[in-house]
Amino acid sequence: MEYWGKAGSGLNFHPHYSAIPLLYYSMPPLLSLTSLHISIEGKPVVNGLSLTVRPGEIHAIMGPNGSGKSTLVNTLMGHPKYEVTGGSAEFHGADLLALPPSDRASRGLFLAFQYPKEIAGVTLRSFLFAAYKAQSAVRGDLPKIISPIKFKKMLEEKMKTLHMDAAFSERFLNKGFSGGEKKKAEVLQMSILQPHLALLDETDSGLDIDALKIVAEGVNAMRSPAFSAVLVTHYARLLDYIAPDRVHVMVKGKIVESGGMEIARKLEKEGYGAFRE
Asked: Which domains does the chain have, with CATH numbers?
């Protein structure tokens, strides 16, 4: 039997949910990185990084340019440009590094790009429908049978929550989209595919405050014990709208400090100087 700790019961409970399993912190990690080393064209970029993300957690990784943040998340998704030269990465208990990108996605891993690509000739709706069908064919937690009409209705409901005009779904993927529209499209894709772990690579870059709030609302709407995320960002402003469970500072390919929002506030006031030293 599974017991749950309720607010006010004197038991520890997760700040974002009314209840969590009592054995939450003994649950197997969703993502476990151990002494990970990554190189680009023979040049070391990530140097012995370790990180554990449990189900339902939101982690923020902050760091200056060139610290290896984008390299990390692109490597986890399987980008061929990056070479893992040491360490291990497990996702759902399996060797993540042994899987091709398609298998990583089918297990519930998702990457929102810092610079989403434009694809002429493919509408946003067609792209999302094809992605959904591919995912639902191999994942047991997504409905396997969904008609184009039902998908269109679901898509329009998701777009409404992100303050996106339904007409955007008939435009070519990211073609002529503003920076904010591209980032909204990434969050829309995440909302449709319902990943177990989302890697958000500087989703806040190039967004004005209104677009940032909308994107944050989209991420917050997904928060549940079945959804985790790693947010990569330079600035603390994103964390004003998406409250992380842990904040990590990454410098020169390593996580040099971890904690709560107090770290983000310190960085906001003092910058990365002390950590660089």
From this structure: 4-276 (3.40.50.300)
pLDDT in tens, 183-220: 899 999 999 999 999 999 988 887 889 889 988 999 99
> What DSSP string runs through 181-246?
HHHHHHHHHHHHH--SEEEEESTTTT--HHHHHHHHHHHHTT-BTTBEEEEEES-GGGGGTS--SE
d(CA 269, CA 47): 27
Query: If you average pLDDT over residues 266-271, what whole number do you get?
Result: 88
- Residue that the structure tokens 């993502």 belong to: 31
